[in-house]
Amino acid sequence: MNENGKLKITNDKGESIDCDILFTFDSDETHKSYIAYTDNSKDENGNVRVYANTYDPTGKDLSLQPLTSEKEWKVIENILISVQEKMNEVQEAGEETDEESRND
User: Fold this and answer.
1) pLDDT digits (tens), the chain, 104 positions
2) What does the alpha-carbon distance between residue 3 and residue 21 come to, in Å, rounded to a whole number?
3) Residue 17 forms beta bridges with which residues?
4) Phi first, then psi: what are they for 96, rounded to 5°?
5) Which of 2, 6, 33, 92 could form a disulfide with 57 if both were Cys (CB 3.0 to 4.6 A apart)?
6) Rounded Cα–Cα distance for residues 87 and 16 (Å)
7) What's the Rg (C-alpha) of the chain?
């Protein structure tokens, strides 16, 4: 991870892929640190693929670890839903502002 919001990962084929960090957070519930990121590829439905792993926030261990429980996936899923809802609100507010500008 670096400060510019980018992450370089190596996939299972040994290819290096540049990813954008969406967010990081620490969970009081699981006592782990998480990172959510995307390679900006899309799935068969046109949705941007998002990945999540645990990581060491001290930087001593640079490897990403897989989520290991249904509880961890639920925590990530709930945050992603919340982020998506907030983004939709911001987008709708922006569209209303654009519409008001055109009507003036």
Assistant:
1) 555 789 999 888 999 999 999 999 998 888 899 999 999 999 999 988 999 999 999 989 988 999 999 988 888 888 888 888 888 888 888 777 666 666 55
2) 10
3) 9
4) -65, -40
5) 33
6) 29
7) 17
